[in-house]
Amino acid sequence: MPPTSVLDARTARVLPWLVAIAFFMQTLDGTILNTALPAMARDLAEDPLRMQGVVIAYMLTVALLIPASGWIADRFGTRKTFFSALVLFTFGSLLCALSVSLDQLIGARVVQAIGGALMLPVGRLVVLRAFPRSEFVRVMTFIALPGMVGPLLGPTLGGWLVQYASWHWIFLINLPVGVIGCIAAFRFMPDFRADKRMRFDTLGFILFGAAMLLITIALEGLGELHMPHARVLVLLFAGAACLAAYWLRAARIPAPLFSPRLFHTRSFAVGICGNLFARLGSGALPFLLPLLLQVALGYSPAQAGMSMIPLAVGAMLVKPLAKGLLDRLGYRNLLIGNTALLGMLIAGLATVDADTPYLLLLAHLGLIGVGNSLQFTAMNTVTLIGLSNANASSGNSLLSVVVQLSMSLGVATAGALLGGFTVPGAQGAEVLHAFELTFLCLGGMSLAGAGIFLQLKRHDGSQPREGRGALPMGD
């Protein structure tokens, strides 16, 4: 890795800011949208309970493209790739604002997501190569801070813009920031490339991507798309077949997209499976909560957005305590207990109705924010901490994919459950009852994830290997 001296002093100062701005844009966009979904649905003449496609299109596209981000950066250079990512994200935001139908909006979100999928992994790769390991943690901590501010500002800003302007502005505010980022990237982003061109596992990428796409569409088919059950089963079977084909092929080729050998490390295998299942409930909350508050309980967009603040505040307040709790309790005990508690808190949202005291609701959401923060920190750390330096990059990439995929599946599952529990023409109490049943199911699914962490040994995670990879930003 090149030392900081390969950068001039100005670039060394600007580079962390540049990557941090890109991170802030993505996290703000991801949280500002959810509060605006009911208003967008009204304007586009759609059912607000079936708007999950706007969220899933972004998450799934990011998950699909993350595996290719490193190869693209090595092939075309980090400067050109990062600059192109910012251009695509900004242009996609403009297309979103100009959309006049749900299909156009989903297509624009895909364009936006192509840029988002490249921004963070390439930005992290540049920082990894530009700064020595002694400074890496400091720089990454600085870059991660905007990712915590984005979820704090996003719901409130989104609600305010929808109520006092229009939903189009949640995308238009990305334009000036994107233009500034593009200029800065062109001037200050280092241009790193691989010394030797690596062959990309194209067939593996297609099989892995097809599996994610088919399984997600199948879940969407139960909700928004109203597919016959037979077609849903065919899609699920095809997705499972593609996934099996990928892993069977990966076991016999020298350089697969993700090597099955990663799963020889028990803590990694448990962490990946835990991330996939334990995040389903948490991933659905940013989609479900604004809908519950506005559609079922009659909150204004601004009030619904402000009600989401405790989720981010709770996560920020407990973050400094996470390491001490892990040292005291160990990964196994903390993950089992916290996963079970988080599942019960999500299921507890089924008790929220018009008579629930507002302060009690805020306290409940704050506790969920605390649980989420501890959960994500512990799961990410235990997943990567046991990997050797040779496997750290591939393991980190697979974890990033699983995080995005689990959130996408969480939203798709929530949409399918909500659609299944909502009777045609439902109003008032019937709509609220559908939300109650959905939260109970999601809480139960999250609670079941605690069983995965029973497979950890007592001392897993306590003795990290030298040279392990850095944690993904955002959690």
CATH secondary-structure class of the largest domain: Mainly Alpha
As a percent range, the share of helical residues equals over 70%
Mean pLDDT metric:
82
**CATH fold-level topology of the largest domain:** Growth Hormone, Chain: A
Q: Strand-residue fraction?
A: under 5%
Q: Domains counted in the coordinates: how many?
A: 3
Ranges where pLDDT stays below 50 over 5 or more residues in a row are: 1-5, 466-474
| CATH architecture annotation of the largest domain | Up-down Bundle
> How many angstroms separate the termini?
25 Å
Going by CATH, the homologous superfamily of the largest domain would be MFS general substrate transporter like domains
Number of helices, where a helix is a run of at least 4 consecutive DSSP H or I residues: 16
Shape: globular
Largest sheet: none
Oligomer: single chain
N to C succession of SSEs: HHHHHHHHHHHHHHHH
Assign the structural class, choosing from mainly alpha, mainly beta, alpha/beta, alpha+beta, or little secondary structure: mainly alpha
Count of strand segments: 0
Radius of gyration: 21 Å
How would you describe the overall organization of this protein?
InterPro entries: EmrB-like, MFS, MFS_dom, MFS_trans_sf. With 475 residues, the protein is mainly alpha-helical. It folds into 3 domains: 1-194, MFS general substrate transporter like domains (Growth Hormone, Chain: A), CATH 1.20.1250.20; 202-256, no CATH class; 258-475, MFS general substrate transporter like domains (Growth Hormone, Chain: A, Up-down Bundle), CATH 1.20.1250. It is 76% helix and 0% strand. It has 16 helices and no strands. It has helices spanning 9-43, 52-76, 78-98, 102-130, 133-164, 169-172, 174-188, 202-222, 229-250, 266-296, 301-307, 309-318, 322-348, 358-384, 389-421, 429-448. The longest helix has 35 residues, at 9-43. The protein is globular and about 60 Å long. Mean pLDDT is 82; it is low at 1-5 and 466-474.
